[in-house]
């Protein structure tokens, strides 16, 4: 039940700790300003029952209230996220009692397939509205920092394939192939014979069409398949933005499966988001809880140390490690700008709830990567104990 005294005490407490360009407009006409500057963000509370979200303003609580329509928020998404983080820091503990509760849940083929389809099968048109033309939905690579999104995504793919020293005639498995951009590039420019796998029916359908449009049906095969069901051996394996869906307790098994599919002198790369908390806790102030519920069900982030450990347990040796956190912050910033610039179109492609989920998610990721709450690492690996004669001795080939 609404308590004016509780609301007054909370707002006074926030003002004593921070200044934010925020205005809160209550259903009764009352306004609360938290800065002498003009507000860049306005939160409208249409009913007294919604005050409970304000007085305990974790990222989960306020994100849930926004997504479910309990409050209205106006302002640029980047400003919204900055304000909400400031409110959370002034009001709640960084880490509550709820840790990574998703770790206790199973990662069966059906559970993983359902989770992937929930996130990726919104619609191809939805993603096309704010991704680059090749529809690459992972961290781009900004060689100079001034590239546009399409250029940076192309450079990311080339950076991966060059790092792996992909050569004509080699076989390449792309686990979690998205809409097919990496497999197509590997075949077109590097001469590889590729298999791409995804659990998303929408991605599978469009990726096959993209392969046909490029005339690469003889070099690229796109499958609707779980990584646990792939057979054979491959000279190169890429996993881009995929292992976050595997589950922390299953990482050694995942890398063991990559090891089994990798040729004796092969190379693999894992490109994925990691936690920066050494204890493996979710991002602070309830951000991880929000993503688990609304964005990536069953998704989990491991610390880089846990990733390297799991690789070794799976029989793989890390050969090269590169941090691209800054690059992912810039990628998410450009995605957010595209999303807001095309908001009218996007609203015709999905319902208001999903529109709001992705709106705050993209801006939230920008903030999280910028502030080192999460990170992104590319780890090149090979079979532990192997010393192939045909591998480069230095990293010079990675930067031609």
TrEMBL record:
Belongs to the CFA/CMAS family. One of its GO terms (biological process) is lipid biosynthetic process. The lineage of its organism: Bacteria, Pseudomonadati, Pseudomonadota, Betaproteobacteria, Burkholderiales. It comes from the Bacteria. This is Class I SAM-dependent methyltransferase. CDD domains: AdoMet_MTases (cd02440). InterPro entries: CFA/CMAS, CMAS, DUF7884, SAM-dependent_MTases_sf. Keywords: Lipid metabolism, Methyltransferase, S-adenosyl-L-methionine, Transferase. Residues 14-88 form the DUF7884 domain. The keyword Amino-acid biosynthesis does not apply. The keyword Methyltransferase applies. The active site is at 365. GO terms for molecular function: methyltransferase activity.
């Amino acid at each position: 039940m609404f308590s004016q005294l509780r609301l007054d005490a909370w707002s006074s407490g926030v003002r004593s700790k921070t200044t934010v360009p925020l205005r809160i407009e209550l259903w009764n006409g009352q306004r609360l300003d938290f800065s002498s500057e003009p507000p860049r963000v306005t939160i409208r509370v249409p009913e007294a029952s919604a005050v409970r979200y304000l007085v305990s303003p974790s990222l989960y609580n306020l994100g849930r209230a926004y997504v479910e329509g309990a409050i209205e928020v106006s302002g640029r998404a980047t400003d919204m996220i900055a304000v909400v983080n400031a409110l959370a820091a002034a009001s709640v503990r960084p880490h509550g009692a709820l840790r990574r509760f998703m770790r206790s849940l199973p990662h069966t083929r059906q559970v993983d397939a359902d989770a992937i389809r929930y996130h990726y099968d919104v619609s191809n048109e939805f993603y096309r509205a704010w991704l680059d033309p090749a529809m690459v939905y992972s961290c781009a690579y900004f060689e100079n920092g001034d590239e546009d999104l399409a250029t940076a995504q192309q450079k990311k793919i080339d950076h991966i394939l060059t790092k792996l020293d992909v050569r004509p005639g080699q076989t390449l498995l792309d686990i979690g192939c998205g809409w097919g951009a990496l497999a197509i590039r590997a075949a077109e420019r590097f001469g590889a014979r590729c298999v791409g796998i995804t659990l998303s029916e929408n991605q599978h359908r469009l990726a096959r069409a993209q392969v046909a449009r490029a005339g690469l049906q003889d070099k690229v095969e796109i499958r609707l398949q779980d990584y646990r069901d792939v057979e054979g051996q491959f000279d190169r394996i890429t996993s881009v933005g995929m292992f976050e869906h595997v589950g922390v307790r299953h990482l050694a098994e995942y890398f063991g499966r990559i090891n089994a599919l990798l040729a004796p002198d092969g190379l693999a790369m894992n490109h994925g988001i990691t936690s920066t908390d050494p204890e493996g806790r979710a991002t602070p102030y309830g951000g991880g809880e929000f993503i688990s519920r609304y964005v990536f069900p069953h998704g989990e982030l491991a610390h880089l140390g846990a990733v390297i450990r799991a690789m070794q347990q799976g029989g793989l040796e890390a050969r090269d490690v590169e941090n691209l956190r800054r690059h992912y912050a810039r990628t998410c910033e450009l995605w957010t700008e595209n999303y807001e610039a095309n908001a009218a179109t996007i609203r015709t492609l999905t319902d208001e709830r999903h529109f709001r989920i992705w709106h705050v998610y993209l801006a939230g990721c920008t903030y999280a990567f910028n502030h080192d709450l999460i990170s992104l690492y590319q780890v090149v690996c090979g079979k532990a104990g192997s010393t192939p004669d045909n591998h480069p001795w230095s990293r010079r080939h990675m930067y031609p």
